[in-house]
Amino acid sequence: MPTPLIPPVTPPIPRFTPASGALTGPADGDPLVAASVNDPFKQLADRTTLSFNGLYGVYGSRLIASCLDGNLIVLNNQAAVRSSSGILSGNLGSPVDISVVLGAPVANTWYYLYGSDVLGVLTPIISTDPPEATLKYRTSNANQVLISMFRTDGAGAVRPFYHTTNGYQYLDPVNLVSLATALVTTPVPIPDAPPFARGASLSVRGDNDTGSIASIFLMLTGFTPTNPYEMRMTPSSNPGTLRTINNDSPRIPIDGDNGFDYLMDTASSYATINLMGFDY
Question: C-alpha 57: how far from its chain's center?
């Protein structure tokens, strides 16, 4: 009668016994009994499970995906993609033609690109379903591994981007604030960052008409730091003008698409803030 060789059940610890060392199989002349083969094969099954779990969520190149033309998503070959049921490697199908896969994408929408085992082939799956809490798998589907993501603009085209490991850079910066004044702490939502983003790269321009020092303060939404990021605008040195223009490119903490807060200390100063990219 067959003997099932069942790997250890996770999460009991220790899981793998023995996890290393020689495996002793039968020798010539040993009695022909199942245990002489089954015992070492159980140990081998343990080690296979150890290797499988060690590849949990692993995938390859640092440059994961990019889009330059608003439609074609170029995906790098992935060294290994591990779902809850198997390990696959290879080309995800580069480039992915969004107009073919999605038809007419919805404007101003986040899409997530997952790798899935379709009849043994690593295949891209695109969905508006976000990843689960570990950011490894599609929510409620651990057989689909998060590879990349993209955001559409108001016309439904993909916002051009580079995605490298946990960093995401827009090739066309997204305007968040345009020549605005905020004398009280004012929230700046970032719909072009996903809910799980925790850092934003910005370009900030300050215009000051007062001829005196003025500041723009940036801080995490709902948090009052002792030393917030500050961009100081100093008076113009050009004779005959009071206008001062200062530019900076800070990286600040954010609360996903809730964004950040900003505050200005002079009524005659104006902020223009663009989103360059984010990390998560």
Answer: 13
